[in-house]
Structures are given as C-alpha cells and as structure tokens.
Specification:
Chain lengths: ~325, ~200
C-alpha cells in the first residue's frame, strides 16, 4: 500500500488556516440561514438563500432508505413543467404566475377525528419532525414521469401527533383557496378548493410524506409551496399542493378530480400499467428528458412496499 | 404584387416549422419537447384547417376573390402539418409498434377521429392537382366535401384529449360552426335567388 509521507505534500497543497476557517464559517453561516429559512419559512430569507446559494443543501437532513437509483430529473425541468391548475392549466404557467405567491405566514389546521386538533404556524408544524431526503419517482396520469429528490417529513408521524380516534378511516387534504393570489381559481375548470384524500393506512405508510423542499432547497412556489403531499405510488394529482387543512374523517372524502371526471379519475389513482385511463393508455410513460417512452411499473415501482395495502381489491374497479 | 402572393404565403406557412426547428436547437421546447412538438404541429394543422375552411365564407361575405388562389396551398399545408403530427406519434410515441397503434386507433376515440381525419386528407391531397380536378369533374367537388368531416374530426380529436380545460377546443368548435352557418346561409340565398329567377322569368 502506498502511504504518502508528510514531506511529499507540497506546501501549496495545504489549505491556509485562514481560508480553512473562513470556509468553516461560511458553511456554518449558510447552514444557519438555511435552518432559518426552513424553520421560519420566511420568504425573504428564502429568497436570499436561493439567490446566494442556489444549490445549497439544507442541514440536518437524514438520507432516507427510500431512494431510487435512477437519474434525477433536472432542477430546471422539475421547476418549469408543473400541473398546478390553481395558477394555470398550462404547464409552463405556474413557474411565472406563482412567483409572488405568499407562503409566509402559513397556517395549517389539522382536525376531524382526532383527540388533539390544532392550528399550527408552518414552522411549528415542521419543527418536531425529522427532515428527510427522499428520491422518488413521480408518475403523472398524463403518462409522463420524473425522478425528484424531495425534502419532507413523514405524514404518519404528523397524524400520530394529533392522536386519531378510532373513527378516523380517511385523511382529507385541502389546498388554499385564494383566487386573488391563485388566478387559476377564477376559472371554474375544477371545483375549488382542490381536495385530495387517502385511506388512513395509505397515509400512515412510511412512503407518504409532506414535502417542504426539493433539490436541497425550500419548495419552489410552482411545486406546491410551502407544503405538499407526496405519495409516489399514486398518480401525481393525488399529491396535493399548498395544503392548508388536513382533516381525518370517517367517510371517504370527495376528491376534486374524482368529482370532475368520475369515470376517469378514481379515489385510489394507484399507478397501474394494466388499467388504462378511459381515453389513453397507462402502459408506458415518457420520463422527462428521455426521447422514447418506457414501460410503466406497477405502483410506480413501489409494489414491494404498497401492494399489501390493496390485497384482494379489484384494481379495475377501484382505479 | 399578385404574382408574389403565393410564394409569400408559402413561406409564411413554413414559419411555424422553422420556429420549431430553431427552438429545438435552442433547447427552447420546454421540459417535454416531444409533447411540445406534437402539440404545436397539431395546433397548426387545426389552425390551417380552419383557415382553409374560412376562405369560401370570406369570399362570399366580403367578395375577396383573390383568396381562392390560396385555398389549395393552405389545404396542402393542413395535410403537411397533420402528416408531421402523425409522424411524431408514429416514431416518437409508438416507435412503429403497429400492434400498439392499431389498439390505440380502435380503443381511443380521440385517436380514432384523428386518424380518420388523416386518412381522409390523403385523397384530398392526391387529387389537388389541376389535372385531377379536370379528370374528376363534378365528382371532385363531391370528394372534397370530405373536408367538412375532417374539420369536425379535427376539433373532436382535440376536445376528447384535454383533461379538464376545454375552452380552446370549444372556441374552435364555435369557429367551425360559424363557418358552416355562413356557408349554409349563402347556399340558401343562392337557391332562393335561383327560385326567384325562375319565377320572374317570362
């Protein structure tokens, strides 16, 4: 084994102490700014952070075991190709129309079938939880897909904290309704506000997260800032954005897309190459950045983790 | 000036394609370039189709006879953009997978009508020459009335593929309807005139 002797290290290779210290300090300062940005959610410092260090990593992020080894979709594409009808039905629209969307202060209410209903400021809501990086596939019902490194907290932990009662069978999520800020809500393309839902066991599944960031940064507005759901084995429309309310319910929530087109969008919306959308095939998808389409995987590749949730269910009926 | 009208319009009709190629090289086709060029060629095909169908009504209402000379070229550009649109689907979406394509055409109504429109455009393009016009005589007119069905298919193709925001296809449906109404209205006037003429004839 070749061991470099100290005298073979040229003085020019040794980092000057002053430089070393300034680097440490820089990391510490930027790390603090990042904490402040995430924890307080202050837009100004968020913007400052983004301007100063676009690709800065947030500190105290636990790497999750839930990670896919596929090539990640570029930050540019993740943040310029968005289905966010609250701003625009056009995919390039949200990136510009959501620019001035105000996410601070942000309050979030959790109630319904729980012992401890509460209204939180976003920073208090996130504080007790572990921030994890999860690299997930995202499969849109429109047959395109991405791979996105999310930053988020476990939805199950959030629900446990408010102590669901025995009647809590479903979880309902609601997006902010604010047509002044969200111009898309001035048109009745969908019934506003957007509502999504999960069965309680789906919500408690370790793969389900509430994301507050992506690519090491605070969540960009067009991606559902400041907090959104991510359920990677379901079509993208289930992963509701800009959440203001989480309600635990006894009965299955009436969800927006299922109301809009009951024959086309079901409550479950699990990614399934064998059950087509009535108007188009779900067998294949175009991964953003790819030239040709690829095969869609059952439960978007998360079958090992989530298939037991649907054991014995007729997936053609419960689409 | 009249001499240049056709070449100028010809070049204008190629501009959408030129911009698409330019954007492709500039990486300006967005995150999903294949979808982007599919949509753009589809949009332009539909716009050229509505424009072609507007020629006769415009001529009748405003008396713009000169437009007639552009009709054939515009119609051929409809075919050109529809062909590009289909070709992108054939290669980049399905990669010549004939089984999948047949399944798509049978199972998906929006693809069924789109494909019908494409098939119907072929005989129209083939018979667009002066020679063919002469050869087919009266039947040429009858054959080319297929363009109305193509118009309806084109709008339905768009309407049936959108998820929720149907405003744009509805606008095209109304334009198409408007153009039909003008035609029918003028046809009636013509018939009436003829009838009146018959009555007043000594």
């Amino acid at each position: 084994m070749l061991i470099r002797r100290p005298n073979t290290i040229k003085p020019s290779e040794i980092t000057d102490e002053a430089v070393y210290n300034s680097r440490r300090q820089f990391i510490a300062v930027t790390a603090k700014t990042a904490v402040a940005a995430v924890v307080t959610g202050t837009m100004s410092s968020v913007l400052g952070l983004q301007n100063a260090q676009a690709a800065l990593s947030l500190p105290n992020i636990t790497k999750s075991k839930y990670t896919v080894e596929e090539e990640q979709t570029s930050f540019k594409d993740v943040t310029r190709y968005n289905n966010f009808y609250e701003f625009s039905t056009d995919k390039e629209g949200p990136a510009t129309l959501a620019k001035n969307f105000k996410t601070d202060p942000w309050t979030l209410r959790i109630d319904g079938e729980v012992n401890k209903p509460a209204t939180y400021q976003l920073e208090d809501f996130i504080k007790p939880h572990v921030l994890e990086e999860r690299i997930y596939r995202l499969r849109c019902v429109e047959a395109w897909s991405m791979v996105i490194p999310w930053l988020g907290i476990s939805l199950g932990d959030v629900i446990k904290r408010v102590e669901p009662t025995s009647k809590a069978k479903f979880v309902e999520f609601t997006t902010l309704h604010d047509p002044v800020q969200m111009p898309g809500q001035k048109r009745s393309v969908l019934d506003w506000p957007y509502v999504e839902g999960l069965r309680i066991d789906e919500a408690m599944h370790p793969l389900s997260i509430l994301a507050v960031g992506l690519y090491g940064q605070v969540l960009p507005n067009q991606n559902g800032a400041p907090i959104r759901l991510v359920v990677p084995w379901k079509y993208g429309f289930k992963s509701i954005k800009s959440i203001v309310r989480i309600r635990l319910t006894e009965h299955q929530p009436k969800t927006t897309w299922a109301l809009s087109g009951p024959g086309e969008y079901g409550f479950y919306a699990n990614v399934n190459p064998n059950v087509d959308h009535p108007r188009w095939s779900q067998a294949r998808e175009r991964r953003i950045g790819d030239f040709f389409k690829r095969k869609t995987q059952m439960y978007n590749g998360y079958a090992d983790e989530v298939a037991p949730l649907y054991a014995g269910m007729d997936l053609k009926r419960f689409y | 000036m009249r001499r240049y009208a056709k070449p100028i319009v010809f070049i204008f009709c190629l501009i959408p394609l030129g911009i698409m190629i330019w954007d492709g090289f500039q990486d300006a086709l967005g995150a999903n370039p294949i979808e982007q060029i599919t949509h753009r060629t589809g949009d332009w095909a539909l716009w050229f189709l509505l424009l072609t169908l507007a020629i006769t009504p415009l001529r009748k209402v405003f008396g713009w006879q000169f437009l007639m000379r552009l009709r054939r070229m515009l119609g051929l550009f409809v075919f050109f953009y529809v062909f590009l649109h289909f070709f992108i689907y054939l290669v980049l979406d399905q990669f010549f997978d004939v089984n999948e394509i047949i399944k798509d055409i049978i199972k998906r109504p929006y693809i069924t009508v789109g494909f019908i429109a494409f098939l119907m455009l072929i005989p129209l393009a083939v018979t667009s020459t002066n020679k063919m016009m002469k050869r087919l005589g009266k039947r040429w007119q009858q054959l080319h009335q297929l363009v109305y069905i193509i118009g309806v298919c084109g709008v339905l193709h768009y309407l049936w593929l959108v998820k929720a925001d149907i405003v744009e296809p509805l606008i095209y449906a109304f334009i198409l309807l408007g153009l039909f109404v003008v035609r029918v209205f003028h046809q009636r006037k013509k018939i009436k005139k003829r009838e009146c003429g018959l009555l007043t004839r000594p």
